[in-house]
Specification:
about 35% helix, 3-stranded antiparallel beta sheet, alpha+beta, about 15% strand, 13 strands
């Protein structure tokens, strides 16, 4: 994959615009719906929090590498972006703006032939062109081959597996329902349909036939009464009582909104409590990290490995450990058990809980007397004694 030999091709192309960005009457873009934005933001934020490790397969297991390539991807993938912002852009494209796709152009330094900037493209201007042996990517009048870009894909299209499929079609009707529910709720909350007091007047009264007559009744019997004083009204003409108008619960707005929010959460793969349905559940959150977040992390790491690495023993891996919902007691308990079994240094445990390293805690210790591993054979009980 000689991605550093990219040649510009001037080809007359048409650039499609994503339907989600078209302004039409009565149309709400997915990017304007709060529930979709919350779900996308939560996933993109968590995935972008994971560090990207460059790993090597060895006879003793996978080993983390630190070199210029690992720094480039994890620290400065683009001159004007951090790794978090770079990954956030990729994930939000996959889930929202790119309709299941995110394309990153591979920039190469012409002098060193090393990777320069990995630039995410604006997905609204990206088009795909099928060829006999693959496909081409059209962008702003230029045509790129798959070797010249990193193409991330989620939910592969069954007819064109190199392209992904987003959630725009599936979410269209649900977003429409949520938008209408919001408008209905705003009308109710405006107070127009929720008067604080309803006054019942004899239906035969002529004053009720027009607005001026109704205003005259209010002015005659109620407006002239000073605050705090009782009203004096005709017993047979007017009856004042408390009448409760319809509420959002009465017209089942809340139940319908809750069902739609759960559907959005299910489609996007986030726990429903992120969208305000139910309360936080630690096990559900950790399962979300193990499934949805880990899955998108796998897509990103495997795509980076395929498009950027030549060595068959190297690969990228996104580390999700810091994303789990731990409390301090759980971390100390788990770390202590690893220390007891000679599988972790105490300084590593201190790093887990945010403490500075201590030079005296670099040695491995083991039970039962917590002595250095190098001194195990010097225990008196192993030397024997006089018979």
């Amino acid at each position: 994959m000689a991605f550093w030999n990219r040649k510009k091709k001037t080809r007359s192309i048409s650039i499609p615009i994503a339907l989600g960005d078209v302004e039409t009457v009565g149309y709400t873009r997915l990017s304007d719906n709060p529930d979709v934005l919350i779900a996308v933001d939560k996933i993109a934020d968590l995935v972008s929090n994971m560090t990207i490790h460059l790993m090597e397969n060895t006879a003793d297991g996978d080993r983390r590498l630190t070199n210029e390539l690992s720094r480039k991807i994890d620290i400065e993938p683009h001159a004007n972006m951090t790794r978090k912002g770079w990954i956030y852009k990729i994930v939000s494209d996959l889930l929202l703006h790119g309709d299941g796709n995110s394309v990153v152009h591979i920039g190469v330094d012409p002098v060193t032939t090393l990777i320069n900037d990995l630039t995410p493209l604006q997905m609204q201007a990206v088009g795909y062109e099928d060829t006999q042996d693959g496909y081409l990517i059209n962008y702003n009048g230029l045509t790129y081959t798959p070797d010249e870009v990193v193409h991330f894909v989620i939910n592969p299209n069954p007819n064109f597996p190199y392209k992904g499929r987003g959630y725009r079609v599936a979410l269209c009707e649900i977003v429409k329902n949520l938008t209408q529910a919001t408008k209905t709720k705003n009308n109710f909350m405006s107070g127009k349909y929720m008067p604080s007091l309803i006054i019942s007047v004899d239906a035969m009264t002529e004053e009720l036939s027009n607005k001026e007559g109704r205003d005259s009744i209010m002015e005659k019997y109620f407006d002239e009464t000073e605050g705090g004083k009782p009203w004096i009204i005709p017993a047979d003409l007017i009856k004042v009582e408390q009448v409760k108008p319809l509420s959002l619960k009465d017209i089942a707005i809340n139940e319908g909104v809750e069902i739609d929010k759960k559907t959005v959460a299910g489609l996007m793969g986030v726990p429903a409590f992120f969208l305000g349905v139910g309360s936080f559940n630690k096990e559900e959150y950790n399962n979300f990290i193990n499934t949805r977040i880990f899955s998108i992390g796998q897509i990103i790491s495997q795509t980076l490995t395929r498009d950027l690495i030549y060595s068959p023993n190297w690969f990228f891996r996104l580390n999700p450990r810091s994303l789990y919902s731990y409390d301090l007691t759980e971390m100390v308990t788990a770390g202590s058990q690893l220390v007891d079994r000679n599988a972790m240094r105490r300084n590593e445990l201190r790093n887990w809980i945010g403490l500075d390293p201590d030079s005296e805690m670099n040695e491995l210790i083991v039970l039962e007397n917590y002595i250095p591993a190098s001194s195990i054979g010097q225990q008196n009980k192993l030397k024997g004694g006089d018979e």
